[in-house]
Design goal:
Elements (H helix, E strand, L loop, with lengths): L7 E5 L4 H16 L3 E7 H4 L7 E6 L14 H25 L8 E5 L5 H8 L2 E6 L3 H11 L29 H4 L7 H11 L6 E4 L7 H7 L5 E3 L31 H6 L6 E5 L8 H14 L3 E4 L10 H10 L2 E4 L4 H5 L4 E6 L3 H9 L4 E3 L6 H11 L3 E3 L10 H12 L4 H19 L4 H15 L3
Parallel strand pairs: 1-2, 1-4, 2-3, 4-5, 5-6, 6-7, 8-9, 8-11, 9-10, 11-12, 12-13
Helix pairs in contact: 3-4, 5-7, 10-15, 15-16
This protein binds uridine-5'-diphosphate.
Family: Belongs to the UDP-glycosyltransferase family.
Keywords: Glycosyltransferase, Transferase
Pfam family, one: UDPGT
Length: about 450
């Protein structure tokens, strides 16, 4: 490979945590394999990113101070990002090409929420690769809509849906964008559908998943789409990837109020702690937070719970007092989730089933209690409970809230219940598959190597 001129990829992300993480990881991976990698993100997120071997450069979404929060609506934000982002991303690439000390940019890798980046690549006459940040199974649903096999909102008479390579899917197991007519005009759905409409126009289409995890789907979709699996895109140290000391993504948008959570975990017995986190975006109803609090308490397990700053005031005061007195739990505003999932004291992850969180738990062999909120999360929950069998899904009551009794039941099921042994065995098996996929010569590693080699050669 050393004999080829080095390729230069620009990787551009949507500025949310669940997008920055996999795209930054992909950039680090490509850099570790010899490509020059520049990571482009909005001005206000670029400042927060540090990643070895990757050059971080700002573009503009048109809201340079506060980003999304400054925009009057999702529609306006995405529209403005498209216009200003296309212009500033093009300018960035032209500027990079004026720097004769580094190879010219020959490929744009873009986040699937930025479908307009394809036109930037085309106008500059460079290669394009899109990275899909949902599971391949979820992506296949959108693809079926594009192909006219499925309509949205999904016709209730067709439920449970039977589609190639997928388990039968009930209404509450579908991505919320497809299950519910409220999202019919959603700007997010429009961006998602735009990317599937133009999938074939890309030189490469990658998804953050791995063959062993979604093999039935991969087989069923052969010939129907050009998607290749390159995941799990989690820091290398956790999955025996190419960068041995890589233990964090390198771009946390939120800060923790506590630096001692790992020391606290160190004092606890193996596999006893329930780790609870609902990702970066979900806003949990106050009633639901109360049920989680008392469900955790009555499970009698110790817990570490991430409650973002913006949600802290929803915590019941009496509960806070009692955990202080009993020392049975710790609440932090943010953490390095991977370090916690990798910690030997953690025995269960109560998660909202964001795709990154799900993949991270799978890659680290941690059994899960699924409490999906919206978007692709209900489908991820279905897979983890019924396909991979690495956890259980907490069922909502009639008022849409998961009760404390249900939470306690699910924790017990995963920790000590009838299914517990099977769940733990499956979780370890999945962790081994993930390591194998990204390890030297594994399914994902081979696809990434082929991509790198093609770019170094200047693929024809
Ligand atoms: N995360 C983190 N610390 C936390 C909570 C979450 O580092 O306290 C990371 C987590 O590791 C994951 C990302 O934030 O990579 C969340 O992405 P996901 O797709 O799971 O959920 P989203 O935030 O998009 O809903």
């Amino acid at each position: 490979m050393e004999n080829y001129p080095r390729g230069h990829v620009v990787v551009v992300t949507y500025p949310a945590q669940g997008h920055i993480n996999p795209l930054l990881q992909f950039a680090k991976c490509l850099a570790s394999k010899g490509l020059k990698a520049t990571f482009a993100t909005t001005l206000y997120t670029a400042k927060l990113i540090r990643a070895d071997g990757v050059n971080v450069m700002p573009i503009s979404d048109g809201f340079d101070v506060g980003g999304f929060k400054e925009a009057p609506s999702v529609e306006t934000y995405l529209e403005t990002f498209k216009t200003v982002g296309s212009r500033t991303l093009t300018q960035l690439i032209l500027n990079l090409n004026n720097d004769h000390s580094s190879p010219v940019v020959n490929c744009l890798v873009f986040d699937s929420l930025l479908p307009w980046a394809l036109d930037v690549a085309k106008n500059l006459d460079i290669f394009s690769a899109v990275l899909l940040t949902n599971s391949a199974s979820v992506c296949s649903l959108y693809c079926h809509i594009h192909r006219g096999v499925l309509s949205f909102p999904v016709d209730q008479e067709r439920v449970p849906l039977i589609l190639p390579g997928l388990p039968p899917l009930g209404l509450d197991e579908l991505p919320s964008f497809l299950a519910c007519s409220t999202y019919h005009d959603s700007a997010y759905l429009t961006a998602i559908m735009e990317k599937f409409r133009r999938l074939e126009e890309n030189d490469w289409v990658f998804v953050n998943s791995f063959e062993e995890l979604e093999n039935q789907l991969a087989e069923a979709m052969t010939g129907l789409w050009p998607v290749q699996m390159v995941g799990p895109l989690v820091p290398s140290a956790y999955v025996d990837g190419p960068i041995a000391e890589d233990r964090a993504y390198g771009g946390s948008l939120l800060k923790s109020n506590d630096d001692h959570y790992l020391k606290w975990l160190d004092t606890k017995a193996p596999n006893t702690i329930i780790f609870v986190s609902f990702g970066s975006m979900a806003q949990i109803e106050i009633k639901q937070i109360e049920e989680i609090a008392y469900g955790l308490k009555s499970s009698k397990n110790r817990f570490l719970w991430v409650v973002k700053d913006s949600e802290q005031e929803k915590l019941p005061i009496q509960f806070l007092q009692s955990i202080d007195e009993m020392g049975c739990g710790k609440i932090v505003t943010w953490c390095n989730q991977l370090e916690i999932l990798a910690h030997k004291s953690v025995g269960c992850f109560m998660t909202h089933c964001g795709w990154n969180s799900t993949l991270e738990a799978i890659s680290l062999g941690v059994p899960m209690v699924a409490m999906p909120q919206w978007s692709d999360q209900p489908t991820n929950a279905k897979f983890l409970e019924n396909v991979w069998r690495v956890g259980v899904r907490a069922k909502k009551g009639e008022n849409g809230i998961v009760t404390r009794e249900e939470i306690e039941r699910c924790i017990k099921e995963v920790m000590v219940g009838e299914k517990s042994d099977e769940i733990k065995i499956n979780a370890s098996k999945m962790r081994d598959y993930a390591k194998r996929a990204i390890g030297k010569g594994g399914s994902s590693d081979t696809i990434i190597n082929n991509f790198v080699e093609a770019l170094m050669k200047g693929k024809g």
